[in-house]
């Protein structure tokens, strides 16, 4: 295995065997003397068959969140993730520390694998702001790979297979991270059929026609020739035909492995796919992430400059005020102040000169005061 640290984020629908898969790859890495760093991001899980190094349940009480905010199960999970995301910088700093050699403990090997377990409610994690922040934070520091866990026995029909592919496609383009399709439970159902459908368009069309003819279209137990979408008539077969053509390009960007979380079959192939995805991440995805980060930084700086310019304008402050932009009345007042200051020998202190002028105007002679009294007495008389 390469010496580069990698973050593996396990995403899968409820019941796909995601947590059991986490246990299997955790045990596999321990068996290869490459102890992983395990993170649990599912606040609603009661028990996990592995010991996480970072557990969201240690920071957030899921039931208390539901009670305090008056939320349902999904809202409680989402709010718990939001609360945990406020500490994502601390998590990343801890991971960066653990993936680097410790000079004080040279005998301790740095962590090479970070595996992350996510909630079974995919939409709560993938399409939420907190999920995006967590993934972006991890991808900024480490090569990050999405492992999409699929329940192979439940994907045996063409319609459920296509549903899973569309879900995987949406996750790929939402996260913009390299993805591995993990067809789990290979001990129950061999995923060879799925690999064939992804690589051979004609094989998928043949399977689709067989389901239509036998009345098992959509995984139902209908009689041959039955009516309705699951009986083979309607728009569904046409829709699946069209989508299989559309997703042909999507399949080329995926790695596909069959794994049995119970027996451990295929785990070695999974980590080989992870190594290839690290190269793909550094080649194709990391430049895009750096570009997005640079764009965000530039937008923040532009917004900051706009706010500063607005503030300076509101305060009527300019770095280098020009003469023609100044107030004409203010210029005249300044000139008068300068003249008064020169007359009073007060230099350039306009305020003091103005005060002296007013003071001089109020100091009239005794002769002037006596003349005023004379005029007043004349008017009275």
TrEMBL record:
Ranges of compositional bias, category Basic and acidic residues: 310-326
GO MF terms held by the record: GTP binding; GTPase activity
Signal peptide positions on this chain: none
Regions of compositional bias (Acidic residues) in chain numbering: 330-346
Bias-annotated ranges (Gly residues): 216-234
One GO cellular component term noted in the UniProt record for this chain: cytoplasm
Residue ranges of the region described as Disordered: 213-234, 310-368
UniProt EC number: 3.6.5.-
Similarity comment: family membership: Belongs to the GPN-loop GTPase family.
Name of the protein: GPN-loop GTPase
Species of provenance: Gomphillus americanus
């Amino acid at each position: 295995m390469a010496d580069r640290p990698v973050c593996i984020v396990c995403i899968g629908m409820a019941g796909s065997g995601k947590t059991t898969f986490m246990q299997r790859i955790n045990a596999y890495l321990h068996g290869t003397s490459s102890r992983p760093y395990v993170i649990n991001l599912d606040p609603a899980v009661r028990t996990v068959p592995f010991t996480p190094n970072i557990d969201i349940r240690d920071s957030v009480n899921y039931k208390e969140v539901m009670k305090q905010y008056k939320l349902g199960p999904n809202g409680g999970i989402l709010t718990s993730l939001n609360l945990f995301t406020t500490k994502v910088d601390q998590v990343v700093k801890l991971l960066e520390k653990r993936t680097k050699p410790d000079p004080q403990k040279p005998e301790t090997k740095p962590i090479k694998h970070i595996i992350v377990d996510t909630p079974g409610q995919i939409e709560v994690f993938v399409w939420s702001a907190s999920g995006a922040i967590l993934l972006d934070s991890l991808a900024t520091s480490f090569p990050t790979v999405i492992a999409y866990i699929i329940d192979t026995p439940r994907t045996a029909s063409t319609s459920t297979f296509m549903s899973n592919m569309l879900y995987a496609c949406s996750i790929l383009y939402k996260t913009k991270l390299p993805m591995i399709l993990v067809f789990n439970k290979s001990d129950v159902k061999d995923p060879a059929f799925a690999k064939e459908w992804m690589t051979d368009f004609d094989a998928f069309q043949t399977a689709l026609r067989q389901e239509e003819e036998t009345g098992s279209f959509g995984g139902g137990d209908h009689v041959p020739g039955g009516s309705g979408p699951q009986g083979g008539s309607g728009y569904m077969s046409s829709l699946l035909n069209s989508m299989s053509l559309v997703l042909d390009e999507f399949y080329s960007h995926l790695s596909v492995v069959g794994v049995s979380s119970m027996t451990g079959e295929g785990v070695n192939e999974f980590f080989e796919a992870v190594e290839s995805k690290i190269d793909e991440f550094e080649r194709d995805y990391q430049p895009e992430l750096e570009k997005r980060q640079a764009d965000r930084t530039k937008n923040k700086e532009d917004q900051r400059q706009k706010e500063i310019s607005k503030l300076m304008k509101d305060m009527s402050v300019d770095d280098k005020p020009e003469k023609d932009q100044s107030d004409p009345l203010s210029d005249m007042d300044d000139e008068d102040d300068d003249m008064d200051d020169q007359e009073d020998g007060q230099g350039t202190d306009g305020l003091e000169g103005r005060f002296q002028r007013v003071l001089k105007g109020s100091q009239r002679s005794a002769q002037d005061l006596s003349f005023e009294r004379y005029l007043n007495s004349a008017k009275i008389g």
